């Protein structure tokens, strides 16, 4: 039996190269080896305010980006989370076995709630429970994500263990798969913080759909340091981040990259990096534009994806409900 991969992405903000390098591009590779399910998590997106029409449009755009990047709907399943009601239902049941203490430890909530202050919703706090439901519904083995999601996948695993020990074997225990390089692409303007889809200042985020001119301008203005030496060094977050991006787009070894740019200036390195990123994203951007010409086709693929995978989700949910004792007992009488 092939192992099963599940991962999700929020249809919000600017889909950036961090999302692409740590998640989407690795999903494309994973689908050759594993049974793969990829989900556009719009229920997660509404944990912060969203403009309704824009959210629907973003679901479509996100699907087109995944397809353009190489997710093959003939091999993998791709669907929108809100198309399958079992996600929200299982999340509620899991809420009732997750200790508050586990949720209070989640660092992403702490960070996001500090930023959003009075806008913080119960949904944002509960985000990890919904993510656990997403993963556990499909008896997932592997969850390819960036570093920022490691703690959430670990929570999903803890929830599965707790449920299994209380109600008997039910869920697979999922494992996060995090790349050694590029698991945390940093902002271009503030390389001490991860590049994020939402709430980032202009120029900090390199979008996968950015035009060549935008890519050049953003990279040329990226923060570096006064040292002028082009070398991988985690203690120099600006240049290190740009070098990691170069490494991932070029496929060259670190030694070859350092040799290539030895004695050269930041401006030359940045110019070459920009062209490498532009070339790396070109096929995706071309295919994206073609796909967006036929939005009905994308809609059909998402419906088909949801239709293929819904029975798996419903079967898991019904097993869980049975174990927890929800619904009616076996009834006597005519
Ligand atoms: N900077 C990053 N570097 C590497 N991987 C990243 N991921 C996110 N940011 C980076 C990974 O991308 C996948 C989808 O994550 P998401 O939909 O939660 O995207 P986001 O960029 O984190 O968007 P947010 O939550 O809208 O941004 P903020 O944090 O500003 O609120 C995941 O696998 C994630 O690990």
UniProtKB/TrEMBL annotation:
An annotated GO cellular component: mitochondrial matrix
Protein's name in the database: tryptophan--tRNA ligase
Catalysed reactions, as listed in the record: tRNA(Trp) + L-tryptophan + ATP = L-tryptophyl-tRNA(Trp) + AMP + diphosphate + H(+)
Coiled coil: none
Keywords of the record: Aminoacyl-tRNA synthetase, ATP-binding, Ligase, Nucleotide-binding, Protein biosynthesis
Organism of provenance: anaerobic digester metagenome
GO biological process: tryptophanyl-tRNA aminoacylation
EC number: 6.1.1.2
């Amino acid at each position: 039996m092939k192992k099963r991969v599940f991962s999700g992405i929020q249809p919000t903000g600017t889909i950036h190269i961090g999302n692409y390098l740590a998640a989407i591009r690795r999903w494309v590779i994973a689908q050759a080896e594993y049974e793969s399910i990829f989900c556009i998590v719009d229920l997660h997106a509404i944990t912060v305010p969203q403009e309704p029409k824009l959210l629907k449009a973003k679901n479509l755009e996100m699907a087109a980006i995944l397809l353009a990047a190489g997710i093959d709907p003939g091999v993998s399943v791709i669907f929108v989370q809100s198309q399958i009601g079992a996600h929200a239902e299982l999340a509620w049941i899991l809420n009732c076995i997750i200790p508050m203490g586990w949720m209070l430890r989640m660092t992403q909530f702490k960070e996001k709630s500090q930023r959003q202050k009075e806008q913080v919703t119960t949904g944002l706090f509960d985000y990890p429970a919904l993510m656990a439901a997403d993963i556990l519904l499909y008896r997932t083995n592997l969850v390819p994500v960036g570093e920022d999601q490691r703690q959430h996948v670990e929570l999903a695993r803890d929830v599965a263990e707790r449920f299994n020990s209380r109600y008997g074997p039910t869920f697979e225990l999922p494992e996060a798969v995090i790349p050694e390089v590029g698991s945390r692409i940093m902002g271009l303007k503030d390389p001490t913080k991860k590049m994020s889809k939402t709430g980032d200042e202009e120029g900090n985020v390199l979008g996968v759909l950015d035009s060549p001119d935008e890519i050049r301008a953003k990279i040329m203005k990226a923060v570096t340091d006064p040292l002028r030496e082009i070398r991988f060094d985690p203690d120099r977050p600006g240049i290190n981040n740009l070098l990691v991006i170069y490494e991932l787009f070029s496929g060259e070894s670190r030694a070859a990259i350092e040799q290539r740019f030895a004695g050269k200036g930041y401006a030359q390195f940045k110019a070459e990096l920009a062209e490498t990123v532009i070339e790396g994203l070109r096929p995706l951007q071309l295919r994206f534009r073609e796909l967006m010409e036929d939005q009905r086709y994308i809609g059909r693929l998402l419906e088909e994806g949801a239709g293929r995978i819904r029975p798996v989700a419903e079967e898991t949910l019904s097993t869980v409900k049975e174990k927890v004792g929800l619904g009616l007992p076996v009834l006597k009488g005519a």
